């Protein structure tokens, strides 16, 4: 009897060990799959209200990317202060930008959403990288030249070394891919050069990031000057459809939008104003331009503008409602951002510790 009991006990223990082993293998596989996901990092400055162009040009792509990649999305408030900011307004816009990210579909449970200044490793790594960057490399940056011309009263060192902080943003998270527009390609190239330079002197430390060429979304132009891109910093408030605009504000802006002298709804380089409104209708209704032309053939601009106004208001409304809900529950929003920053810091600290060790800083 004792012998049988011992055999049963031994078999049970073996079975239990196998179960533990299988659980560990499954856990290791899940972790491996997570690690193997390529890392993407992107961010937006809280220097103004987000508009419909941000949604269609960047954030919609972010929402898709978070299903396939490990995504770090950040509100880059450190970059924003290269231009003088009103402190209360900067705080408000930082939270508004975070709330709009979530309202547009960025999921903080899947992606890491955080405020840049919550993660001090960004500035710590930026200082180290500053010591590897030549004066000529920063002075050649087109954006530095443009912004220096636009803000000649405030040409500061932060503006000069802005691309180095951007390099730190990217390299901290061992980023594989960076969504870049035309104006950021030069900055990414500097990031790659700095990573290669550091790796050459101190052995492999940073991944060399590659540009992620996003699917080009519909390009939204100013409602008042359709030859220019819609901008959050436009002096004319009527030129931009903000994601926080009310239905009435959206409809009023579209009905007052610049068109041209005739009344034909047609996509054409010669009809920039009406083509821009067609783009907005295409975004809101997911219709082809040919179908839009057929729908409004012979109906005139009055009917078309009313239809565009209603469609865009309907399209923006769910985003605005979720945004307002988050802004009315700031404690919850702050909790999400704090959790995101803690997650970001874990990854950032690993990279910074490695860098500090390699360059010779004392560590305990």
Molecular structure report:
With 364 residues, this protein is mainly alpha-helical. The protein has 2 domains: 29-218 and 331-359, HUPs (Rossmann fold, 3-Layer(aba) Sandwich), CATH 3.40.50; 237-326, Tyrosyl-Transfer RNA Synthetase (Orthogonal Bundle), CATH 1.10.240.10. It has 15 helices and 5 strands. It has helices at 2-36, 52-65, 77-80, 87-103, 121-130, 135-139, 142-150, 157-160, 162-172, 185-202, 247-255, 272-285, 289-295, 300-327, 330-359, and strands at residues 39-44, 70-75, 112-115, 177-179, 210-212. The strands form 2 sheets. A 3-stranded parallel sheet has the order 1-2-3. A two-stranded parallel sheet has the order 4-5. Helix 10 (185-202) links the parallel strand 4 and strand 5 (210-212). Helix 4 (87-103) crosses helix 14 and helix 5 runs parallel beside helix 15 (330-359). It starts with a helix and ends in a 5-residue tail after the last helix. The model has no long low-confidence stretch (mean pLDDT 89).
User: What are the low-pLDDT stretches, counting only 5+ consecutive residues below 50?
Assistant: none
**Mean pLDDT, rounded to whole units?**
89
User: What is the CATH architecture annotation of the largest domain?
Assistant: 3-Layer(aba) Sandwich
The main sheet comes to: 3 strands, parallel
CATH topology of the largest domain: Rossmann fold
Topology as a string of helices (H) and strands (E): HEHEHHEHHHHHEHEHHHHH
* CATH class category label of the largest domain: Alpha Beta
- What would you call the shape? globular
Oligomer: single chain
Helicity level: 55-70%
């Amino acid at each position: 009897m004792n012998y049988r009991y011992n055999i049963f006990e031994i078999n049970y223990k073996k079975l239990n060990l196998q179960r533990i082993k299988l659980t560990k293998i499954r856990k290791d596989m899940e972790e491996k799959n997570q690690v193997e996901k390529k890392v993407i990092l992107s961010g937006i400055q809280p220097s103004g209200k987000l508009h419909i162009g941000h949604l269609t040009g960047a954030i919609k792509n972010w929402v898709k990317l978070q299903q396939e990649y490990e995504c770090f999305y950040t509100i880059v408030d450190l970059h924003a202060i290269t231009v003088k900011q009103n402190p209360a307004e900067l705080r408000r816009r930082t939270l508004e930008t975070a709330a709009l990210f979530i309202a547009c579909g960025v999921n903080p449970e899947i992606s890491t959403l955080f405020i840049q200044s919550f993660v001090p490793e960004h500035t710590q790594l930026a200082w180290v990288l500053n010591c590897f960057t030549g004066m000529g490399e920063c002075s050649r940056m087109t954006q530095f030249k443009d912004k220096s011309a636009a803000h000649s009263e405030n040409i500061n060192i932060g503006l000069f070394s802005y691309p180095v902080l951007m390099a730190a943003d990217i390299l901290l998270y061992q980023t594989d891919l960076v969504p870049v527009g035309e104006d950021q390609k030069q900055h990414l190239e500097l990031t790659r050069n700095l990573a290669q330079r550091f790796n050459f002197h101190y052995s492999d430390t940073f991944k060399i990031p590659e540009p992620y060429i996003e699917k080009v979304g519909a390009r939204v132009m100013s409602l008042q000057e359709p030859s220019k891109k819609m901008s959050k910093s436009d002096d004319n408030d009527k030129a931009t459809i903000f994601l926080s605009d009310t239905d009435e504000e959206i409809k009023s802006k579209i009905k007052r939008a610049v068109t041209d002298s005739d009344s034909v709804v047609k996509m054409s380089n010669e009809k920039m104003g009406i083509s821009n409104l067609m783009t907005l209708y295409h975004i809101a209704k997911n219709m082809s331009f040919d179908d839009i032309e057929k729908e409004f053939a012979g109906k005139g601009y009055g009917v078309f503008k009313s239809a565009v106004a209603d469609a865009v208001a309907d399209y923006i409304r769910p985003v605005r409602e979720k945004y307002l809900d988050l802004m009315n529950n700031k404690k919850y929003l702050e909790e999400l951002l704090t959790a995101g920053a803690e997650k970001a810091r874990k990854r950032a600290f690993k990279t910074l510790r490695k860098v500090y060790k390699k360059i010779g800083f004392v560590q305990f």
